[in-house]
Amino acid sequence: MPHMLRISEAASLALHMMTALSETTDKLVSVHEIASSLCVSEHHLSKVCQRLAKAGLLESSRGPKGGVRLARPADSITLLDVYEAIEGPLTMSECLMGQPVCGRQMCILGKLLEVINREAGEYFSKTTLTQLADDSKIKSEVKLPG
């Protein structure tokens, strides 16, 4: 059954990590340091980094002085870019069941799903990592070296 807005653990990790990286300079930050500051599995975060790198959002370098950094300026990366790198295209369902199986002409929730989906999509497409990093609540959550 589809959710109104599905944010998996991997997508949440990606959003938090990318926002934290947007606060650092161009310096490489190790996946170990990021995992430690987010209190998450380094192995899981590495897989998330691979998807973000494949999508062109993250650069990585191996070795003792290696790490990751944003591949583009933070003000050019939206939440939608990060979300879709992990989850695939953001889909907007107008039915709680994913398909109209109840036989009704209109959803039992009226236009609620349509409104929520539209607002979430607009927020994700218009909000950049820079905007999130500028939010003092985010800045106090995760601090990376640099």
The pLDDT mean sits at 83
Q: Kindly name the structural category.
A: mainly alpha
CATH superfamily of the domain at 9-91 and 128-141: Winged helix-like DNA-binding domain superfamily/Winged helix DNA-binding domain
Which class of the domain at 9-91 and 128-141 in CATH terms?
Mainly Alpha
Strand order of the largest sheet: 1-2
Largest sheet: 2 strands, antiparallel
Total count of helical runs of at least 4 residues: 7
> For this entry, what is the oligomeric state of its chains?
single chain
Comma- or semicolon-separated keywords:
2 strands; elongated; Arc Repressor Mutant, subunit A; 146 residues; mainly alpha
Folded structure, characterized:
This protein has about 150 residues and is mostly helical. It has a domain at about 10-90 and about 130-140: Winged helix-like DNA-binding domain superfamily/Winged helix DNA-binding domain (Arc Repressor Mutant, subunit A), CATH 1.10.10. The chain is about 50% helix and about 5% strand. The chain has a two-stranded antiparallel sheet with strand order 1-2. Helix 1 packs across helix 3 (about 40-55), helix 1 packs antiparallel against helix 4 (about 80-85) and helix 2 (about 30-40) crosses helix 3. The relative contact order is 0.21.
List the helices and strands and how they pair.
Elements: H1 9-22, H2 31-38, H3 42-54, E1 58-61, E2 67-70, H4 79-87, H5 112-126, H6 129-134, H7 136-141
Antiparallel strand pairs: 1-2
Helix pairs in contact: 1-3, 1-4, 2-3, 4-5
